[in-house]
C-alpha cells in the first residue's frame, strides 16, 4: 500500500474503482453561498432570494458572453444531507454551511479562469452574493477526475459534495471507490471532481459535481435503502478520516417537480434515516453482540437498575 492509498473496509468486487475518462482542460470558478436555505425542498424561495436569483441570472448571462467563458450555471439548493464526523470536527468552530446557491463558471482553460476573475462582470456576481450571503465559498478549480460530463442543460437532481480530509491525495484516491458505489447503486454515469488550483486557499479538498435524471425523493431512497450505504460508503469515509458534505440542487429558475403529499411526508423520514446512518458510521463495527448488553434493557451486570 502506498502512502496515500486508502484503507478499504468490507472490500468487495461489486464496488470497484469507478471507470474514469480523461479530465477536461477547462477552468472552473465555483461560488457557493448560504443565503436563505429552504427548510423543506417543496417550499418556495422567499421574496429576497427570488429577487437575488433574478439578478444573478442577468449577471450570469453577461459572464457567459465573455470570450473566455464556455458556460455559466446557477443552482438552487433543495436538500442538505447531514455532515459526517470528519466534517463536524473540521468545521465545528465555523459551523456547517448550507450552500443554497451555487454559481459554476466553466472557462476555456485554467489560465482563462484567472482572466475571468479580473472582469467587471465577475465582480458584479460576487458583489451581489456578498451583499446577501451569510457565508461564501469561492474557488478557482480544475477537473482532477471525471466519470463523464455533467449535463447541465437538462433538468435533473444535481449534487455538489464538498470533501475535507487531512491527506488530500487519499481523499482523491478514496473518491474512486465512493464513485464506484454510486455507479452500482444509483446508476450514476457522470461526475467531475474539482480541486482548487495551486495557491488557492480552500477549506475543502475537492468538490464533486454530478447529476441524476431522477427526482429528489428517488435519489435519497436509492442511497438510504441500501445497507451498504452504511457498511461500505460511510464506513470507508470514517476509516480514512474523510469528511463529505453533500448538497442537492436543481437549476435556478427551474420549476419544482410536481409537488405531492408523498414528498412532504417521506422526505423528512429520509433525512432522519440519513442522520441515523451517519451516526451509525462508527457504531456499525462494534457489532450486535456488544450492543445487546444488559444495559440496553435497563439493568446493570448485577441486575440492579442503571
What does this structure look like?
With about 300 residues, this protein is of the alpha+beta class. It has a single domain, classed as Alpha-Beta Plaits. About 35% of the residues lie in helices and about 25% in strands. It is built from nine helices and eight strands. Strands 1-3-2-8-5-7-6-4 form an eight-stranded antiparallel barrel, surrounded by six helices. It is globular. It starts with about 25 loop residues before the first strand and ends in a 15-residue tail after the last helix.
Q: Let me know the number of strands.
A: 8
Question: What is the oligomeric state here?
Answer: single chain
Task: Give the number of domains.
Answer: 1
**Class, according to the CATH hierarchy?**
Alpha Beta
Helical fraction equals 25-40%
What does the main sheet amount to?
Answer: 8 strands, antiparallel, barrel
Average residue-wise pLDDT: 87
Strand content: 15-25%
Shape: globular
Task: Please provide the ordered H/E string of secondary-structure elements.
Answer: EHEHEHHEEHEEHHEHH
End-to-end Cα distance = 46 Å
- Secondary-structure class: alpha+beta
Q: Compute the number of helices.
A: 9
* Strand ordering within the main sheet: 1-3-2-8-5-7-6-4
Amino acid at each position: 500500500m502506498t502512502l496515500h492509498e486508502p484503507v478499504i473496509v468490507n472490500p468487495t468486487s461489486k464496488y470497484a474503482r469507478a471507470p474514469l475518462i480523461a479530465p477536461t482542460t477547462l477552468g472552473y470558478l465555483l461560488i457557493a453561498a448560504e443565503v436563505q436555505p429552504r427548510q423543506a425542498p417543496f417550499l418556495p424561495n422567499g421574496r429576497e432570494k427570488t429577487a437575488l436569483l433574478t439578478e444573478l441570472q442577468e449577471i450570469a448571462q453577461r459572464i457567459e458572453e465573455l470570450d473566455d467563458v464556455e458556460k455559466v450555471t446557477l443552482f438552487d439548493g433543495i436538500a442538505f444531507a447531514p455532515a459526517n464526523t470528519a466534517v463536524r470536527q473540521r468545521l465545528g468552530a465555523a459551523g456547517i454551511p448550507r450552500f443554497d446557491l451555487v454559481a459554476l463558471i466553466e472557462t476555456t482553460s485554467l489560465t482563462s479562469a484567472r482572466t475571468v476573475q479580473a472582469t467587471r462582470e465577475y465582480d458584479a456576481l460576487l458583489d451581489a452574493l456578498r451583499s446577501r450571503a451569510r457565508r461564501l465559498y469561492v474557488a478557482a478549480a480544475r477537473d482532477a477526475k471525471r466519470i463523464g460530463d455533467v449535463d447541465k442543460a437538462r433538468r435533473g437532481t444535481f449534487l455538489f459534495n464538498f470533501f475535507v480530509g487531512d491527506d488530500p491525495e487519499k481523499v482523491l484516491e478514496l473518491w474512486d471507490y465512493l464513485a464506484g458505489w454510486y455507479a452500482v447503486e444509483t446508476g450514476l454515469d457522470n461526475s467531475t471532481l474539482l480541486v482548487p488550483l495551486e495557491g488557492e486557499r480552500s477549506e475543502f479538498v475537492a468538490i464533486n459535481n454530478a447529476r441524476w435524471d431522477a427526482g429528489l425523493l428517488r435519489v435519497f431512497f436509492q442511497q438510504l435503502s441500501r445497507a451498504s450505504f452504511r457498511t461500505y460508503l460511510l464506513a470507508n469515509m470514517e476509516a480514512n478520516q474523510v469528511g463529505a458534505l453533500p448538497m442537492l440542487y436543481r437549476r435556478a429558475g427551474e420549476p419544482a417537480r410536481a409537488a405531492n403529499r408523498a414528498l412532504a411526508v417521506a422526505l423528512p423520514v429520509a433525512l432522519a434515516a440519513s442522520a441515523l446512518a451517519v451516526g451509525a458510521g462508527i457504531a456499525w463495527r462494534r457489532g450486535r453482540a456488544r450492543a445487546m448488553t444488559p444495559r440496553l434493557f435497563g439493568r446493570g451486570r448485577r441486575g440492579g437498575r442503571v
